[in-house]
Design goal:
By secondary structure, the chain is mostly helical. It has 6 helices and no strands.
Length: 94
């Protein structure tokens, strides 16, 4: 499936319209499979650990992840759009 920038913008607006945790749960549980939701939750845990300065090997052991996944998360935290840092700060996790 090819997704246009218009369709992506609609998804961004959809997520921006979420007003609270209850609505977020409703949307995410309907739009994602249980495995996708679990993967996102795991990725967020990985980012939180990286932001705390936890060593990669410790994260790998703690979260049962490969070093390559952790390295990718680290690169996104350092060189991504800034979304992870923004939300870490917004949620008081850093």
């Amino acid at each position: 499936m090819i997704v246009s920038s218009k369709q992506l913008n609609e998804v961004y607006r959809l997520f921006a319209s979420v007003k609270d945790e209850k609505e977020a749960r409703m949307l995410l549980e309907d739009i994602l499979t249980p495995q996708e939701l679990e993967d996102i939750a795991g990725r967020w845990q990985l980012i939180r650990e990286l932001a705390k300065g936890t060593p990669q090997r410790e994260i790998a052991s703690k979260l049962d992840l490969s070093i390559s996944k952790i390295t990718r998360g680290s690169r996104m935290l350092q060189f991504g759009s800034g979304g992870f840092r923004h939300f870490l700060q917004k949620m008081g996790k850093k």
